[in-house]
Amino acid sequence: MKKKRLSKRQLWEKQKNEDKNFNKTMLISFGLVFLFASLILLLVYWCDVRYTYRKFALYGKSMPRHLVCMSHDGMIHHESSKIVFKNKTYFVCSHSCHNHIERYYKEHAFTTDAYSGDTISKADAIIGLKVKGEPVIVYFKNKRTLNKYYEAKNK
User: Fold this and answer.
1) What is the mean pLDDT of each run of 10 residues along the chain (155 residues)?
2) How far apart are the first and last CA of the chain?
3) What DSSP line would sit under 101-141, residue for residue?
4) What is the pLDDT of residue 111?
5) Which of 23, 36, 55, 140 has an alpha carbon within 20 to 30 A of 112's alpha carbon?
6) What does the alpha-carbon distance between residue 136 and residue 139 come to, in Å, rounded to a whole number?
7) Cα separation of 91 and 112, whole Å?
8) Cβ(98)–Cβ(39) under 8 Å?
9) How many CA atoms lie within 13 A of 2 on its CB side?
10) 83: part of which helix (H) or strand (E)?
11) For 61, which DSSP code?
């Protein structure tokens, strides 16, 4: 039995189809590898991703107290610890910050309102971000001063 010989055109089309199938397979394979690697990295660095997201998403809004350390006035990666000192609730990131608030109560338990300049207790204050994308926080006496502060900054 004789084999049928392919013409140059048929051979070229056959090679083209094989290349097309190979390219499709490679594209799908590399796409799945990229997707899987991205998913692994997202799971490994979830805390960093969430922290970075919060630095942008919470700007202009009242910030939850459990995300800050009131001793060094900054947003932290993980939830902070709640302490009660002189019948007021403060949030700190470590035992050394807890001791620092207790030792230097008058200096670090009170601050000024970022908009009005009034002296307020950090335990009673509303918390916001000072700059979008930065973990530095500011304190406000009430919601009205918080809103006015961000209105004045965004003009």
Assistant:
1) 73 88 94 95 90 93 93 90 92 92 90 92 94 94 93 85
2) 86
3) HHHTHHHHSEEE-TTT--EEETTT-EEEESSTTS-BEEEES
4) 93
5) 55
6) 10
7) 18
8) no
9) 3
10) strand 81-85
11) S
C-alpha span between 43 and 28 (Å, rounded): 22
Dist. CA 132–CA 147, nearest whole Å: 15
7: left (phi over 0), alpha (psi -120 to 50) or beta: beta
Residue 137 CA to residue 128 CA, distance in Å, equals: 6
pLDDT at residue 9, rounded to an integer:
84
pTM value is: 0.75
Distance CA 53, CA 74 (A): 15
Q: Which two tokens stand for residue 143?
A: 């919601």
- Phi-psi category of residue 86: left, alpha or beta, with phi > 0 → left and psi -120 to 50 → alpha: left
CA distance 51 to 29: 32
Tokens of 24: 């499709």
pLDDT at 11: 83
CA–CA separation, 97 and 42 (whole Å): 31
Which tokens belong to 31? 């796409």
